[in-house]
Amino acid sequence: MDIRARLRRARNRFDLPLLGRIAQSALAAGAAWEIALQIPGHGQPFFAPIAAVIALGADRGRRGRQAIEMMLGVALGILIGAALVEVGGAGAWQLIVGTAVALVVATAAGAPPVIRNQAAASTILVVALHRTGQNLAVQRLVDALIGGFIAIVLARFLFPIDPLDLVRDEARELRKRLAAALDETAEAVERADRAAARSALRAIDDLDTRRLEDALALAREITRTAPRRRPLRRRLEALGESWLELDGSVSDAHAIATGALRILDEESPRTAAPAIRAAADAVRAIEPDEARAAGDKARTAAARLRESMSSLGAEVVAHGVTAVAEHALRAAAAREEDRRLAAEARNQNRSPRVLKARWRRAKPVE
Question: Residue 58 has what pLDDT?
Fold first, then answer.
């Protein structure tokens, strides 16, 4: 691979949101260092910028939570380390005991990995760097609080992630893969290809709806904890209905693929292909009008399949296609409700009362 190709691949790894998060981490590191330096007798506050960067290095939507978990882990580790050196001093066996105690206590409490790791690391630092008369434990705790506080301010108050985009990204990927698997099923039925039909069924089985569920749960947490995102709670619940309908479509697509395997043993398996393709189109549709049209088309195709074939396999496929169509229709209604709420919010922001309040806040004090 030439240098240009490598540079192109490296450039493609960066987008505006990623560059924004990098800038926030750099800003947080500098701010944490400067703030910690203002504390008299604090020495070299190296952990304050480290704590800020660790907290802001979490996955999308989890930065505020990771900052809190980091601070809890540091506090636990400092408590254990300080108690240990007070009783037994510093040494190899104290490191062994302290690390073990920190991990056991954090694990017993059901703490996530960040808390466990930070508790163990803080215990090690307190024990290993212990010097009589120094307040290393207090300094590290203060650094963790400063870095974590700055991370929370950036992640939850100044630059909180859009919870709707967080779930949209997962839903978009799930919809794409599900529609492709249904298209593959229809093509297998048209060719009477049993191996391809089994491959399509495996592709549907491999779809992980838990990622969408986790993203929706995380988005709800963001609307609860990030003040700037609280107005999106009603929209999130409306769109949550459409995303749950997509989750239900995965189960019905499994029924379609299972029924398709049965149809391959019958005389005219190609008859089922249009209905399966109509289900794929219903999954793929996003715009409310488009989704309604695709849902109606899928229901009509399922009815035609029942009329032309009376076997168990045909009934299973028709039932699955009809269910996918119903999911698409309900999702369209949910998206329309989201648009109504979005328009309502825009109108409220443009109302004379809101504009007057904004003008008063922006007006300089005379």
Answer: 80
The architecture of the domain spanning 163-343 is Up-down Bundle (1.20)
Asked if residue 151 lies in contact with residue 133, where contact means CB atoms within 8 angstroms, the answer is no
Identify whether the C-beta of residue 318 lies closer than 8 Å to the C-beta of residue 274. Answer: no
| Mean pLDDT across 41-54 | 85
From CA 27, how far away is CA 48, in angstroms rounded?
12
> pLDDT tens digits for 84-120?
988 888 888 989 999 999 999 999 999 999 899 989 9
- Position of tokens 């009603």? 234
The dihedral through the CA atoms of 318, 324, 327, 328 has a sign that is negative
170 phi, psi to nearest 5 deg: -70, -40
Q: Please, which contacts does 175-178 make with residues 24 or more away whose CB atoms are closer than 8 Å?
A: 175/246, 175/283, 175/284, 175/286, 176/284, 177/203, 177/207, 178/204, 178/207, 178/246, 178/249, 178/250, 178/253, 178/283
Handedness of CA 92, 94, 95, 97 (dihedral sign): positive
pTM given for the model: 0.76
- Which helix H or strand E contains 248, and what residues bound it? helix 233-263
Dist CA 244 CA 195 (whole Å): 31
Residue among 149, 132, 133 at smallest CA distance from 141: 149
| Residue 95 CA from chain centroid, whole number | 37
What's the number of CA atoms in the CB half-sphere (13 Å) around residue 6? 3
pLDDT digits (tens, 9 = 90+) for 208-237: 888 888 889 889 989 998 888 998 998 998
Burial of 261 (0-12, 13-18, 19+ CB in 10 A): buried
CA atoms within 13 A on the CB side of 61: 19
For residues 159 and 24, the answer to whether their CB atoms sit within 8 Å is yes
Rounded to whole angstroms, how far apart are CA atoms 71 and 69? 5
Instruction: Give the start-to-end residue ranges of the domains of the chain.
Output: 16-158, 163-343
